[in-house]
Design goal:
Enolase-like, domain 1; 9-stranded mixed sheet; 3-stranded antiparallel sheet; globular; Enolase; lyase
Amino acid sequence: MASPVTRSAAQEAREMYELKKKAVQYYIENGVPEKMEEILNSTFYDNPNDVYGHLANYFENFQRMPIITKIVSREVLDGKGQPTIQTEVYCTVKNFEKLLVTSICSSKCSLPDSMKPEDKDLAEKDRQVDVTKSIELINSNFSQQLQYLDPTKQEQIDRILIDAIIKMTQDEEVRLTKEAEDRGKADETDAKSVSSPMPQDSKSKAKSPKGKGKGPAVVVVPDEPHEKFVAGSATVCALSQAIAAAGAIVRGIELYKHIASCRYEKIPKTFCLPLPMVTILMSGKLAPGKLNCVKEYMIIPKPGMPLREVVSRAVNDQGALWTTFDRPEQGLDLIQEAMTQLELTPGEHFHIALNCAGHEIFDYDKGKYEVLVGQQKGAEDLADFWSDILDKYPSVIALIDPMRKEEKEAWMHLCEVLSEKCLVIGDEVHHRPGLLKDEDLPNDFKTSEADKQIIIGTSDGETTDSFAVDLAIGCGARFLKLGAPCRGERISKLNHLLQIESELETLGVLRTPAEHTFPIIKPPTPPPEENEGGGNKPEEK
């Protein structure tokens, strides 16, 4: 009869044998023996200086794709001291949770600089509510909803974000509609409970004004109602930007290449840097002097000029000069004279763009644009006004916001007159070329398939995050509107642009931008009229 010690040893041997079988099966299922044999053989022949680094690089190719584990958001300040959103994306990398990226989203205020104090207070309150709600959503709902997703799947994640915000917007609209109906019922009940008033005596009736000596009433196209987003909409921008940066890190490529692959479905072989729009002079309604119709004088380098040369000529230590102008020609003369002193030719080495901010100089009482103090122009007259200036200064190749977006017919007339001479650009208007703000993410990266030119513009509440630069390069934007060359949040973008230019030059994949072309914009052809019999009206000969 076997002793207990013998039985125990036999049992341990069987358990060890079973354990070895499981280990062999586990390693075979994961292909470890073959990979170990391959890397050990290649390591011997390669004879690397860092053996373990060589082994790590080899096995890194077989690691699992990092997945999102959590997203953390908090409130920080932008360049203007306004509240904005900082987002951190954590992923499981090589079995450990790791912080991949920290991103700060730019804030936006669509109201003009000359807005009323009460409107400014309301906008600041709405911004704070939006930021607070967005942070709450990111730290709770979206952190759980995006958990275990692949951060490189940008389109999938953007779709989740957009659908969630659309659902929130619809729920908010239903709530507001119900509240309006309840108020209407309450008002109707109150009206029935009040007795009808006694008829007034004919003598007590108010007399209608005769309007003697007054001109005809001014008809003004009303402003479109300010688009109000549901609280928490900033979530889309903050998360989309952060996920894009995390996806680039996971893929081990530059952010602009990752964005380009999202748009073109593969990384392009060559890249073209956007032409920077650098603000040199500031004017406008709030500036001293009589000039209202030009808020920013910007210079644009000629296509092909190296960015380092652009920066050396355009950057100064004071930023944009805010001086006194009484006519738009004064600023243009000053810039062209400065170019001449530097032995540069206006219209050859550098071009000029004007930010007109037409919505800020519109007089609602008179229905006209106060282009200069004491001088007003109707919407239909602005085309001739700017056409004369463009004829005098052919170096001006772009006008931004020459009038309000509500002036539909006047817009088309202005485009018809000016689009052969310059780019007519509108912010948040149906227009060509397009002007996109980096806070308007997530962008449809296929938005310019119709051969439109894109301008990426930074917002007023920008941060030191240089995402806008990568977005502009990845989207193939024609221009990058950076503002005045001062303050850290702008200089950081210029430095990042310089860095990318150097990298692309070293790799030999930097493409020179094409020469400027102006897409001619004509009013749409009216549909054929129908005669009384239902057929088309015959053409007149």
